Amino acid sequence: YKRKVKQIHSYHTGIIRDLPMGETMVILLLHYRKLRCRQYGVRVKHQDFAKSYSRVTNRMALYIFKLCQSMSVVEVATHLKLQWHQVKQIEKDELMRRYAFFDFRKVIILCLDEIGIKKHHNYMTVVADYRTRRVITMLRGRYYKAIFKFFSNLPHTDIVFDPFHVIAAFNRVI
To answer: How far apart are CA 165 and CA 171, in angstroms?
Structure first.
């Protein structure tokens, strides 16, 4: 948002958490402006160190994400004195930023497996890249309808069954 704006809508003060210094919590008091634009309406002036309406700096969000790789969301929240839903949202936003786009041109072999949820009454199908073991998507259900839509978007796809499922299907017939 880089436009020359002639009118300031209002002035505000916000609190943003930054990386702790040792055992000391760092809180930034931020004075910012809301600007009025004819084309876009009222907007918050962008800050380079934090996302708009964020309660933590970008580097604090990255620190939280890295902690989530080795600790649970509740443990990170307790350690940093944050609400668990804040930590969960920061982790979710970073995962979406990193993994939302997937380049299928590099995938040679896909693997599928189903997992049971809630004592095996509901199922999800996990689709992953066989070589990298990276999960590509999770699909609700485990039957043809669940995966048909996903595979219809992939050109030149061959379906191969593993020996376990071939023998299992053969034994059901016998």
So the answer is: 10
DSSP character at residue 139: E
Q: Could you give the C-alpha distances from 107 to 122, 151, 157, in angstroms and in order?
A: 28, 13, 11
Rg (CA), the chain: 24
Are 134 and 126 contacting, i.e. CB atoms less than 8 angstroms apart? Answer: no
Give the DSSP H or E segment for 137: strand 135-140
Give the tens place of pLDDT for each residue, 70-125: 999 999 999 999 999 999 999 999 988 887 777 777 788 888 888 888 776 788 88
CB-based burial, 128-146: b 16+ in 10 Å, e otherwise: bbeeeeeebeebeebeeeb
Q: Under 8 Å CB-to-CB from 90, ≥6 apart: which residues?
A: 56, 61, 64, 65
In terms of pTM, does the model score above 0.85? no
Pairing of strands 110-117, 41-44: unpaired
What confidence tens digit (pLDDT) does each residue in 131-165 have? Answer: 888 888 888 887 777 777 777 777 677 767 778 87
CA distances to 15, 30, 62, 67, 68 from 21, in Å: 17, 19, 16, 16, 19
